Amino acid sequence: DQQVKQNSPSLSVQEGRISILNCDYTNSMFDYFLWYKKYPAEGPTFLISISSIKDKNEDGRFTVFLNKSAKHLSLHIVPSQPGDSAVYFCAASDYRGKLIFGQGTELSVKP
Amino acid sequence: DAGVTQSPTHLIKTRGQHVTLRCSPISGHKSVSWYQQVLGQGPQFIFQYYEKEERGRGNFPDRFSARQFPNYSSELNVNALLLGDSALYLCASSPDYEQFFGPGTRLTVL
Fold it and tell me: What pLDDT, on a 0 to 100 scale, did the predictor assign at position B1?
């Protein structure tokens, strides 16, 4: 069963606009959530995280929102830049620390 | 500061062979995890080690094994390779919840 789902395989956004990437999870035991960015032939790069006791975390252009009742999190990138074009993975972790990843969303930011 | 390093970068093996992948964590990180990523999917958890002890194991066959050394570096071993083992193998080190990934080893099984 897919415990972490990213239902949009791809997203295309105009430069300067907002990019919103979504992620749903099923396991209420997850207590930490992370977003990673991945370029081809490279390992995932950590972007931003959020603890389950919070509902928002901001870091520069990146903001993650967590809705525990809906078991949903989203990553907002404002403003989007062409260099943001990559595959974005959300991941969830329980107290044991292993990460469960979604399938990824490929973001394309057009100039 | 050096990030997570992995070796080799690329590897080609034939079915039935054995492979050893290596990982050096970020200095000060005591936990190392291994993931397998096949095309079009997110990374799948294989193992986690902390202070040389196995802390977790994913849904992979016994052909997969790993260990962590006193300097916190780690090896992933895969025996009796199958075509389906072709993937990007990622190592991550962590001080806490946040895991930092290396560039990966691309394994091709022919």
Answer: 62
